Amino acid sequence: MQNIVLIPMGVMKLDVAGFLSLSLPEILRVPCRVLAEEIRLEPFYSSDRKQYHSTEILRQLLPLTADKKQHILGILDVDLYIPILTFVFGEAQLSGRCALMSGHRLHQEFYGLPEDESRYLQRCEKEAVHELGHTLGLKHCDNFECVMRYSNSVADIDIKRNVFCPLCSQELGIPSLW
Ligand code: ZN
Ligand code: ZN
Question: How many domains does the chain have?
Answer without folding.
Answer: 1
